[in-house]
TrEMBL record:
The keyword Oxidoreductase applies. PANTHER family: DEHYDROGENASES, SHORT CHAIN (PTHR24321), OXIDOREDUCTASE UCPA (PTHR24321:SF15). Its EC number is 1.1.1.47. It comes from Pontixanthobacter aestiaquae. One of its GO terms (molecular function) is glucose 1-dehydrogenase [NAD(P)+] activity. This is Glucose 1-dehydrogenase. Belongs to the short-chain dehydrogenases/reductases (SDR) family. It comes from the Bacteria. Keywords: Oxidoreductase.
Length: 260
């Protein structure tokens, strides 16, 4: 299949690298025009440049975007209106991990984790929905985590924030359905994915990344760590009209961990 999201107008947060870059590239490859946003403005611009080089000028744009900042959200949505011509796909991908158990995690880290992972979706949906309603049907795709469904003793802030993303997605889905907006909302729950985040994890743990990937893979029934496109393919499905009957749901991309 080709052009699965032809004519779609998408905003992807955290698009400078990793999952966000993969989402942006695949959506563009399948026919969407994309606004790449990130607090790392150079990284977002680089993703947009790669897309335009591959798929033609004007396929992608970029903007510096602190997803915890309401004014930044308003600016990003206005840029989507002005440069894309509207908006009907919102991919809330930006997120951070915070380590520390319930005794070690600082309240500042707790608040920062919720600001980036949860508040960003609240602000983003409030800013984007008016424009998305003008260009329905639409799809909101929130990147949660398998850590939002399965707890760990070492990361209560991350667990709680990603669980909030899961339930917030359902509430948004029901609201949009009740108002007959033609806008769906679903969450995606990946396990370990080979992105630059794991570089920092390996460094923090004091081991080579290759050894870390082997260790993580042993925890997954399929005995592998995910690749960014494994998640981007799910984003593509949810952005497309193929998933028109799917809302308020969660896609677990965890190699079988949650089945254990």
């Amino acid at each position: 299949m080709v052009d699965r999201v032809k004519g779609k107008l998408a905003l992807v947060t955290g698009a400078a690298q990793g999952l966000g870059a993969a989402h942006s590239l695949l959506l563009a490859k399948e026919g969407a025009r994309v606004l790449c946003t990130d607090i790392n403005s150079n990284g977002a611009a680089n993703t947009a440049q790669i897309i335009n080089e591959q798929f033609g000028a004007g396929t992608a744009y970029s903007i510096e975007h602190d997803v915890t900042n309401v004014s930044h959200w308003n600016a990003a949505v206005e840029m989507a209106r002005d440069n894309l011509g509207g908006l009907n796909v919102l991919v809330n991908n930006a997120g951070i991990g915070v380590a520390g158990n319930i005794e070690d995690c600082t309240f500042e880290d707790w608040k920062r984790c919720f600001a980036v992972n949860v508040d960003s979706i609240f602000h983003g949906c409030q800013a984007a929905l008016p424009l998305m309603r003008e260009h329905a049907p639409g799809s909101i795709i929130n990147i949660s985590s398998i850590a939002g469904l399965i707890a760990s003793d070492t990361m209560p802030a991350y667990n709680a924030s990603k669980a909030s993303v899961w339930m917030l997605s359902k509430s948004i889905a029901l609201h949009c359905a009740k108002k007959n907006m033609g806008i769906r909302c679903n969450s995606i729950h990946p396990t370990f994915v080979d992105t630059p985040i794991l570089d920092g994890t390996a460094k923090h743990a004091g081991i080579e990344k290759g050894l870390l990937l082997e260790k993580l893979a042993r925890q997954v029934p399929l005995k592998m760590v995910g690749e960014p496109n494994d998640i981007a393919n799910a984003v593509l499905y949810l952005a497309s009209d193929e998933s028109r009957f799917m809302t308020g749901a969660e896609l677990k991309l965890d190699g079988g961990i949650s089945a254990m």
